[in-house]
Amino acid sequence: MKVRFIVPFVICIVMTIGSAGAVWGDSAALSPYISILSTSPYKQLTRLDETANALYEAANTDNRQAGFLHVQQLERMIKGELKGKSGKMEGWAAIEQDARAIEQTIRSSETSSGWLKEAARIRLATDALVRPEHALWLQYESIMLDDLSRVEKAWKRQTGDGAIAARATMNSLQEHAERIEPAISMIYGSMHGAELNERIRYTNQLLETKKSSPLNEVMINHSLKALNTAIVKMFDHSGRAEVMPAVAPLATSNPLSWTFFLGAIISAVLTYSGWRKYKNNPFGVKPLP
Length: 289
Fold this sequence. Notes:
This protein folds into two domains: 3-32 and 250-280; 38-247, no CATH class. 71% of the residues lie in helices and 0% in strands. It has helices at 3-30, 39-61, 64-78, 89-107, 113-130, 140-155, 162-179, 181-187, 194-207, 214-234, 255-280. It is built from eleven helices and no strands. 29% of the residues are buried.
């Protein structure tokens, strides 16, 4: 009977149309982002991130030859068209400045500690550009809050040298703030971390005051609380700026389109099987032996 292949054939047509519609629908929805979701910028950013990681490893091992090679590669990438496609110009300027500092340090035959800091800053900045939602610099929130906790404990010492001990402990917090500065500038711009830097500067100024007074102690306590607020505010995810999606591959799987596609294949097989049976036995009656 014709129903053996007509019904699967109709289902196959419907499934094929549905599958094509689902695919075209996705393409239409993504059409505004085709220019920024191209593979070329993503590959360039990936190479930049890999070069920054290699530069950091060279700094850790004091491999000057590899470091010089990687920093030159990095400088060529920075001077290209990549920085006009993603990230903030302040971040690119910070990377470029650190790269020049590394090259000058390597040329002057100084120790590895002279360019490890800059290499770490570059690595964090490129990582923030490639993985904005899971960047390494975000882990510094707990580190910096721990730094501040040690500062507060040092300040509350009963030995009479609390201000001196707190000021010495502030160096760690300041160092960590400087390390993530290019990463913040790359994602948000330089003004995002301005409040924290100002709070660190002001707190250091209060702690360095040689003349101790009850008013100065109150101001220091207030400044430490404000510093805690500034750290939390800087890492506040709710205020995160939008980042160009070209730095991450787009997930393109669509369960509906796959359902239609598999349904069309199954219906096609059933249609072909029914048609062959109909051709061999069009009236559904077996021939007599």
